[in-house]
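STRUCTURE:
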């Protein structure tokens, strides 16, 4: 397997989180009067969404980037994810139906019933795919996660977590008001020498 494919699959691995497809309302001024508990309660119920943006994978002297469109339909247990090069070429496609996952990259298809194990078999990386569905929304995944909140806005700025005995740090910036919740549009996910940067151009919520 080529280095590009391994890096591309690593990009996919870090981005497997829950979402869906609908049209968003226009983002506006942040509603900072919402308490931490109120925001967390709303986001804990937000299981359907979609986003479009850019993602960059950085490790040592290696760097790869791509455009990303990710869609999840929880009602029918289906999700799709596409990574596209700056030339507009699709370099990776994921499709999941129930517990069956298919990854297509470089003309090859890989299938499995356990997504985290499938990713590990292809990349050698153990990625917290379950935790990411919480972290992307600024929510803790387990009781040992630590969240630092911005003093004025009360929005998450940093989450630190131990997942499978590995230390992760997630940082958040550039929040936007999407419907009735505040969501970050800039993220970094760091573990050892692995750094992922995500810039979201468009959130789509129910």
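SEQUENCE:
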């Amino acid at each position: 397997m080529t280095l590009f494919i391994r890096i591309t699959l690593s990009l996919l691995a870090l981005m497997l989180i829950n979402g869906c497809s609908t049209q968003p309302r226009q983002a506006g001024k942040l509603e900072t009067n919402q308490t931490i508990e109120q925001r967390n309660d709303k986001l804990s119920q937000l299981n359907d969404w979609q986003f479009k943006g850019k993602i960059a994978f950085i490790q040592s002297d290696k760097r790869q980037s791509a455009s990303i469109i990710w869609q999840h339909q929880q009602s029918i247990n289906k999700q799709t994810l596409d990574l596209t090069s700056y030339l507009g070429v699709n370099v990776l496609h994921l499709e999941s139906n129930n517990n069956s996952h298919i990854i297509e990259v470089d003309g090859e298809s890989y299938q499995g019933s356990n997504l985290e194990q499938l990713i590990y078999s292809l990349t050698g990386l153990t990625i917290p795919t379950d935790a990411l569905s919480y972290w992307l929304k600024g929510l803790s995944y387990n009781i040992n996660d630590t969240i630092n909140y911005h003093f004025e806005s009360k929005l998450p700025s940093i989450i630190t977590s131990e997942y499978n005995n590995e230390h992760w740090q997630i940082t958040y910036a550039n929040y936007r008001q999407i419907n009735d919740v505040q969501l970050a549009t800039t993220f970094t996910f760091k573990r050892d020498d692995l750094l992922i940067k995500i810039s979201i151009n468009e959130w789509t919520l129910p």
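REMARK: The radius of gyration is 17 Å.
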